[in-house]
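Catalogue entry: protein

Sequence with per-residue tokens
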Amino acid sequence: MLLEQLNLMNGHLVEFLIRFGLNMLVTTYVIRYLYYPVSRRKDYFFTYVLISVVIFFLVYLLGDAQIKLGFAFGMFAIFGIIRYRTNPIPTKEMTYLFVVIGLSVINAITNEKLSMLEVVLANIFIVIVTYILEKIWLTKQDISKIIRYEKIDMIKPEKSEELLADLKERTGLDIRRVEIGDIDFLRDVVKIRIFFYAPDKGKHMADEGSI
């Protein structure tokens, strides 16, 4: 009896290690080699890795498969609410967040009807689609940067074209659009997120600066 229990525990341990290793391998590849080279956002890199690990453990350690699925959908709902009730998270970063959560849930769910081969194939398909979208279709690197801008009168809607032209001239970047952030009327400074294509492959700017 004890021997059977030990064998069962060893079997569960092996499956746990395999699933955890698969999850870390796939999510690390997506975050490090697909997301990070384009965005260079270390804060999101840190967040994605930890979220992946924590969600994997939470889902895997839950006993019932239905509870696991309910928890997984609950996590998607929570992060959806966070998306709309906090400071805006860029759409691309939010998409990668859902990819990381989805991979962690897929790798953690244990179900008799779901074979390990199906789990591996699901991981492969997600990575392939992400790779095609990021590296083949979206050849230009879309980068955003937060700057502190002192011409506060230029943020008026009717001066949007002048603002864009001034930012292009002063930064030398092909800025496509801007988003107005926090406004400090005491210092006459406004935070603006600019969106532009990378001027050269491998060259990236710091996340926040001043002009």
Remarks:
- Residues 201-207 have pLDDT under 50 and may be disordered.
- The longest strand covers residues 175-184.
- The CA atoms of residues 37 and 134 lie 10 Å apart.
